[in-house]
Amino acid sequence: xxxxxxxxxxxxxxxxxxxxxxxxxxxxxIIKEGYNPLCGDRLTIYMTTEDDCIKEVMFEGVGCAxxxxxxxxxxxxxxxxRIAEADKLFDAFHELIMGNxxxxxxxxxxxxxxxxxxxxFPARVKCATLCWHTLRAAMHHSEKEISTE
Length: 149
Ligand code: ZN
Prior knowledge:
Layout: H1 2-17, E1 30-36, E2 41-50, E3 53-62, H2 65-78, H3 83-97, H4 106-109, H5 122-139, E4 146-147
Parallel strand pairs: 1-4
Antiparallel strand pairs: 1-2, 2-3
Zinc ion (ZN) binds at residues 36, 39, 41, 63-64, 66-67, 127.
């Protein structure tokens, strides 16, 4: 288990340092900003959608390693997914990050399970969920800036 844990940590560090899908997305039809005042994490999600599918999703921003790694992993998980699937993934991720049993959702979560350990650090949960709350608002066209408070 500790080896697995170390592997997970390596993946988080890797994504925190070299986030995937990082940068603005040309022709994004949805742009949404999110802010986590507890830690100071700020990010912007860019998306293009087509027929209820997420065609492209990218992000940029400044934040702690957890917030950046979580957003990086999220964009990888979401590319090509239907909005309804993304909603399901949001719920599964929320359970994971709250420390609830995620055995039934392991296939759905895929690489996102590397963030399971964050549940042990309540102060960091909002860092990991910022991108997801921002995405949820972006998909459902909520108007206001997102705060995880
Ligand atoms: Zn943070």
